[in-house]
Amino acid sequence: MPATPAVPEASRPLLSPVVRVRRRRRREGEQGGEGLVAAFFLAPWFVGLFLITAGPIAASAYLSLTDFALIDAPEWIGLDNYREMWGDPRFWAALKATTLYVVVSVPLQLAFALALAVVLDRGLRGLWIYRSVFYLPSLLGGSVAIAVLWRQMFGTYGLVNRLLGLLGWDSPPGWVSTPEYALWTLVLLHVWTFGSPMVIFLAGLRQIPRMYYEAASVDGAGRVRRFFWITLPLLTPIIFFNLVLQVINSFQSFTQAFVISGGTGGPVDSTLFYTLYLYQRGFGELEMGYASAMAWVLLLVVGLVTGLNFLASRWWVFYGDE
Amino acid sequence: MRTRSGRLARGSLLRRVPAVVLALALAACGSGADPGSGPGSGGAGSGGAGRAAGKVTLRLAWWGSDSRHAYTQKIIDLFEAKHPDIVVDPDYGNFDDYWNKLATGIAGGNAPDVLQQDTKYLRDYAERGAMADLSPYLGKEIAVADLDPVVATSGRVGDKTYGLPTGVNAYAVVADPAAFAAARVPLPDDATWTWERFTSVAASITKGSPKGVYGVQDPGPVDITLEVFAGQRGERLFTPDGRPGLSKATLTAYYTMLAGLVASGAEPPPSVSVEIAPAGVDRSLVATGQGAMAMFWTNQLGALAKAAGKELTLLRLPGDSPTSGTYYKPAMFWSVNARTAHPRESAMLLDFLLNDPEAARLTLSDRGLPANLVRRKAVVGSLGTADQVAARFLEKLRPTIGATPALPPKGSGKISGTVVKKTNEQILFKRLTPEQAADTFLRQAASALKR
Q1: Alpha carbon of A159: minimum distance to chain B alpha carbons (Å)
Q2: Is A283–B271 a contact, with Cβ atoms under 8 angstroms apart?
Q3: What is the rounded distance in angstroms from the CA atom of residue A204 to the CA atom of residue A236?
Q4: Do B107 and B134 have their domain in common?
Q5: What pLDDT is stored for residue A320 in this prediction?
Q6: Which residues of B144-165 are buried (b: 16+ CB within 10 A; e: fewer)?
């Protein structure tokens, strides 16, 4: 059926054939053109996906079933890498350190970001300055420079310990180099990069209709009550969004642990993040097959955790239209 | 009008799409094909431009201290002046990063052309086909007649030569006489001291020094300490046929000694040790004036003294038996990437690094006391104090020296690197008893060599 189906049947007699043709042509032209333009603008992403990402992903699936030393050809060994992982204490140490890091640092960071967003949402003067200042750590936090700074600050002879010395603590431990504390310096660093969830929270807060608060005030609800009964429930979708993103990100943390531990994941594997161990096996010990297998297991773990997150969200995320 | 121009623009855009895609595809193919055609050298990819100017670009990679980076650059300048048609790009870093980068570079087909190698990894790289056999160039582009016979063939695997030794060195205790004096502890007699004496000397230095100055830097993260310790008991980390060579008794004794250093206060608290372990020469205790002793290779004395800004001396490693366990080590090797696009020029650069009198005068004994005996004789006279000390020390060792261990087997890097370091950390932080540490070590060593 060549006629234009989009034009309602009833209106058709009113259009002259010329108009009809012209309209059809324009429509086709536009549709075809827009499709192509869209394809054009999507092309870089697709080129990136297929040339840069998809190939390596497929390759790593294959490599995970091989013994591959990086400097010579891979050798097929089936599921041996996965079997080795099961009995590898450092693999479990890495998974444990990473999970602890995610479980502690993500909620802390989100709570901190939300608290600041609520304070900043009060319509302060010069809000944009605060916003920028608080966002800054997010831009810097993942960088090597900040991790180096962190290592210096929290080292045995670092700035933090000098301050503690001034306060009368005789010889405080090296925070980055004591197994009991090292991971917590990384948690602190992560919490400090609260900027991006904060900005998202700020946007979310703006969307809560004022009238809810007005109504609540009229009913005599105080500030705390309004926060817990209006702000928090209406913000749950945003919290959920931030949670999912941050959990996925945190599982992949690498730079900070790498720099702070000098690439070792030490002391005693206390900061051995999963990706850091993966890197050590792949590049340090030339076991790229094992490293690839670890990458796939990480994908499974992150997928599983994200799935659980979505399942759990049914119980606590409140969408306004429900 | 507006729509028309809009459509025109769109049209021309659309017409350009295939061209853009084609260009992208070509660019992708180009970079994809590059490693096959011209790996190894940064300049090989841009062969067109390079050839037009008649220049060959080589990349030279090494690890080391700041002073090594500086004088190696001077050697490069000299080489370029003598060979105007060759450009040499430097590529350097610290020891750990160097190996990560090298492996990645070789996998990606853009590894350096000429590179520093170590006994720890040479056989591994050679057996996997990543290093070039230098045999065809020996006696031609690369002069080898003057090389010290003790190490001249140490870069051989089977009947092929994969590396030429830069020099010889030995493992030693670097001591700061000023720190000994300040703590009112006399320098020990290093011909007779036992490990127990070593521990008590270091502990009394810690006691006699101001807070924050310690007797000795933790020697545990380095496998050579273990290699020498085992040598004194007639064992080696690896047997000549490439199997784990340590007994549980030796390992237990070794870890008991290390635990004793921590417990007696001979070395800094574990967290300080952990912080300085990866930092290399420039931040070692003897370089920063925070310690009286540390174990290093003799060729590192110059860099240490420079960093410390004072004179340091060398002592023999302690031992409980008449066997010293110490050996002459080929300090490092110069090797050539098997996939270099310019093997002949690479061989020429290697020869220059190994044999050129000017290069030798710049290197002095930083890459070991020169393997080239003629250069060694010429250089010894002009060595600075630290290097003189190192050269004399090596001579003093000669009567007690043992055989140089064979190049360690494939997979050994994991033992001498990760297993040694991680087990040491567990001793430092008291996570394992010496006996448990010995068991852990044996188990991990066996599984590392199984692959």
Answers
A1: 15
A2: no
A3: 10
A4: yes
A5: 67
A6: bebbbebbbebbbbeeebbbbb
Do B164 and B183 reside in the same domain of the chain? no
Q: Six-digit token pair at A226? A: 């309004």
Say if B131 falls within a structural domain. yes
Q: Tell me the shortest Cα–Cα distance from A276 to chain B, in angstroms.
A: 13
Superfamily name with CATH number, domain A88-316: MetI-like (1.10.3720.10)
* Same domain, residue pair B248 and B222: yes
Can you spell out the DSSP letters for A103-160? HHHHHHHHHHHHHHHHHHTTT-TTHHHHHHHHHHHHHHTTSHHHHHHHHHHTSTTSHH
Q: Do A173 and B271 touch (CB under 8 A)?
A: yes
Same domain, B179 and B157: no
Residue A31 binned pLDDT confidence (cut-offs 50, 70, 90): low
> What CATH number does the domain containing B181 carry?
3.40.190.10
Range B36-43 average pLDDT: 36
Residue B428 resides in a domain: yes
Range of the domain at B313: 171-326+411-450
Find the CB nearest B272 among A72, A174, A285.
Answer: A174
Check A268 against B100: CB less than 8 A apart.
no
List Cα–Cα distances, A7 to A3, A21, B77, B213, B234, in angstroms.
9, 12, 78, 89, 95
* Subunit contact A283:B128, Cβ cutoff 8 A: no
Q: Picking from B154-163, B179-188, B410-419, which range would have the lowest pLDDT averaged per residue? A: B410-419
Q: Give the nearest partner residue to A70 out of B103, B275, B278, using CB atoms.
A: B103
> How far apart (Å, rounded) are the C-alpha atoms in residues B389 and B313?
7
Distance from CA of A283 to the nearest CA of B (A): 5
Which chain A residues have a beta carbon less than 8 Å from that of B269? 156, 174
Q: Which residue has the higher pLDDT, B76 or A147?
A: B76
How many domains are there within chain B?
A: 2
Residues of chain B with C-beta less than 8 angstroms from the C-beta of A51? 28
Q: B284 and B296 in contact (C-beta within 8 Å)?
A: yes
Distance (Å, whole) CA B161 – CA B131: 9
Is the Cβ of B104 closer than 8 Å to some Cβ of chain A? yes
- Confidence check: pLDDT of B413 > 90: no
pLDDT tens-digit series, residues A103-116? 999 999 999 999 99
Contact A71/B107, CB-based, under 8 Å? yes
CB contacts of B272 in chain A (<8 Å) are 156, 174, 177
Locate tokens 């031992």: which residue? B319
The ipTM (two decimal places) reads: 0.77
The answer to whether residues B351 and B278 belong to one domain is no
Amino acid at B105: G
Which B residues in the span 398-427 are in contact with A, Cβ-Cβ below 8 Å? 413-414, 417-418, 421-422, 425-426
Record: contact A72-B14, CB cut-off 8 A: no
More confident residue, B385 or B375: B375
* Chain A residues touching B13 at Cβ < 8 A: 37, 40
Judged by average pLDDT, the poorest of A57-66, B32-41, B60-69 is B32-41
Q: Are residues B273 and B421 in the same domain?
A: yes
The ranges assigned to domains in chain A are: 9-63, 88-316
Using the predicted structure, report yes or no on whether residue B420 has a pLDDT greater than 60.
yes
Q: How confident is the model at residue B348 (pLDDT cuts 50, 70, 90)?
A: very high
How would residue B31 be classed by pLDDT, with cut points 50, 70 and 90?
Answer: very low
- Smallest CA–CA separation between B362 and chain A, in Å? 31
The rounded distance, in Å, linking the Cα atoms of B116 and B92 is: 10
- Position B403 scores a pLDDT of 81
Q: How confident is the model at residue A17 (pLDDT cuts 50, 70, 90)?
A: very low
Nearest CA in chain B to A72: B128
For residues B336 and B318, state if they share a domain.
no
> What percentage of chain B exceeds 90 in pLDDT?
63
Would residue B38 count as lying in a domain?
Answer: no
Tell me, yes or no, whether B103 lies in a domain.
Answer: yes
- Is residue A20 predicted with pLDDT exceeding 70? no
Contact A174 B279 (CB under 8 A): no
Q: How far apart (Å, rounded) are the C-alpha atoms in residues A184 and A69? A: 34
Considering the domain architecture, whether residues B194 and B277 belong to the same structural domain is answered as yes
Answer whether A267 sits within 8 Å of B270, measured CB to CB: yes
